[in-house]
Amino acid sequence: MRPHLALIEDEPDFALMCRSYLERAGFTVTWAMDARAGNAVLHESRVDLAILDLGLPDGSGLELLRALRSTSRLPVIVVSGRSAEADRVAGLEIGADDYLVKPFSQRELVARIHAVLRRSQPPDVPTVIQAGSLLVDTAARRASVGGAVLTLRPKEFALLELLAAAPGRVFSAEQLLERIWGSSWQQSATVIEHVYRLRGKLAALPAPAPRITTVRGFGYRLDP
Question: What would the CATH number be for the domain defined by 4-120?
Answer without folding.
Answer: 3.40.50.2300
